[in-house]
Amino acid sequence: MPAFGLGVFQSSKEDTGGAVKAAIEAGYGLIDTAAGYQNEAEVAMGIRESGIDRSEVFITTKLRTKDFGYDSAQRAFDASMASLGFDVVDLYLLHWPVPRNFENTLASWKVCEQLLAEGRVRAIGVSNFTPAHMARLIERSTVVPAVNQIELHPFFLQQDHREAHDRLGVITQAWSPIGGVQRYRGDGSEGRDPLQHPVIVELAKKYGKTPAQVVLRWQIDLGHSAIPKSINPQRIRENIDIFDFSLQPDEIAAISGLDTGQRGGGDPELVGTPEGK
Ligand SMILES: NC(=O)c1ccc[n+]([C@@H]2O[C@H](COP(=O)([O-])OP(=O)(O)OC[C@H]3O[C@@H](n4cnc5c(N)ncnc54)[C@H](OP(=O)(O)O)[C@@H]3O)[C@@H](O)[C@H]2O)c1
């Protein structure tokens, strides 16, 4: 799996194909979509329009919690494949755990294991699982998830998750890698945007890079996979232009030190409850 990719959450149907094409032209090798984003078909269109061979692009998509269950997960996977129009998905993720109905989560994981055995997906993983959810899943199944895609940016580091992943050999993939959720789910108050934090702004000046590039480089220097979203071709190119510099250990530590322990997005523990999503 390429470490660096394009996310397409909240990319409209109109914008997605162009963003994917721009990303591929800029050298991205990974596109992260989901059934819930309702743009799988447009992702596939962008890949086709780019002219690149399908095998050169790594495609991730995800199973919605509303499709969890043994039969419904199989139907949902078939629907994703029909939208994408490709023979195989590179990585298939359970989008969120449903802690209050973990049996259903496990039944969906069983489907993922079968899809892997049948060769319809090349790898399977999870998203938004806590270390406790991960342990429950592993205890009751055969395949250890290849990836856990979690909210992770300078203001929310999830150190316990990262350590658990390292112990288990699971790849940590950062969603909202430049802290986008802090803006689009935030109240607009000052200090919520990591890209405006003085530590990051100063490092950007030092390296002649933008704040987003510094944060994405920090992600890569920490060994994470990162999937920033943009529909803007200039920012799409900017975001991947991070492989000509690296941060010093004290600079990496300074950015990690901005962790507030406060998530910007939904709490996985609350999925399936009135307070959750
Ligand atoms: N598994 C999950 O539950 C989950 C949840 C959320 C996200 N994700 C995945 O992670 C991907 C990325 O996360 P995200 O969209 O939440 O946040 P993000 O990538 O951290 O931030 C995206 C936001 O930042 C803007 N942006 C992009 N590049 C920029 C730059 N260089 N400078 C300034 N602003 C920039 C984008 O606007 P423009 O488009 O206008 O450039 C967009 O508003 C998603 O697309 C999705 O694939 C997964």
Structural features, described:
- The structure is a single chain.
- With about 280 residues, this protein is an alpha/beta fold.
- It has one domain (about 5-190, about 225-235): TIM Barrel (Alpha-Beta Barrel), CATH 3.20.20.
- Helix content is about 45%, strand content about 10%.
- It has eleven helices and eight strands.
- It has helices spanning about 15-25, 40-50, 70-85, 100-120, 130-140, 160-170, 180-185, 200-205, 210-220, 235-240, 250-255; strands at about 5, 30, 60-65, 90-95, 125, 145-150, 170-175, 225.
- It has an eight-stranded parallel beta sheet with strand order 1-2-3-4-5-6-7-8.
- Helix 5 (about 130-140) links the parallel strand 5 (about 125) and strand 6 (about 145-150).
- Helix 1 (about 15-25) runs parallel beside helix 2 (about 40-50), helix 1 runs parallel beside helix 10 and helix 2 (about 40-50) packs parallel to helix 3 (about 70-85).
- The radius of gyration is 18 Å and the shape is globular.
- The mean pLDDT is about 95.
- It binds NADP nicotinamide-adenine-dinucleotide phosphate.
